[in-house]
Specification:
Distance between the termini: 23 Å
Structural class: alpha+beta
Order of helices and strands: EEEHHEEHHH
Strand content: 25-35%
Radius of gyration: 15 Å
Strand order of the largest sheet: 1-2-3-5-4
């Protein structure tokens, strides 16, 4: 699952069991939330301190998503519910521009590029 939010871009998938290596089976009860920018996971932790505040951000520079948070699936469900409930804008790209503390020029530019790529899908 990809989520583009006013707190950042996240990829959420089931974590693997054990040490998380690729030879381990998927754990359907544990979620790994990944980010390419550490600041995005930090913003998510700051937004949901009761749920995520004590969870460590793991760094793995040899992967495509360098930063990761691990949590039980029910915790992730609460986070996603909170993100949905706080939606109070009619354009995410405009929200990022209007609130620079939530994003930056690189994130805004990436959102525009994703919009352009996905716009082609309908044709």
């Amino acid at each position: 699952m990809w989520l583009f939010t006013k707190h950042g871009f996240f990829s959420a998938v089931c974590a693997r069991q054990g040490d998380g290596s690729h030879d381990q089976p998927v754990d359907p009860d544990r979620i790994m939330v990944r980010a390419r920018v550490r600041r995005h996971l930090e913003a998510l932790k700051n937004r949901f301190p009761a749920l995520l505040g004590k969870r460590d951000i793991h760094e793995s520079v040899a992967t495509d998503y360098a930063y990761r948070l691990f949590m039980p699936k029910p915790v992730w469900v609460q986070v996603v519910t909170g993100l949905a409930e706080e939606t109070d804008y009619d354009s995410l790209k405009s929200e990022i521009v209007r609130r620079p503390e939530l994003g930056d020029a690189a994130y805004e530019d990436s959102l525009h590029q994703v919009w352009t790529v996905m716009h082609r899908l309908k044709k």
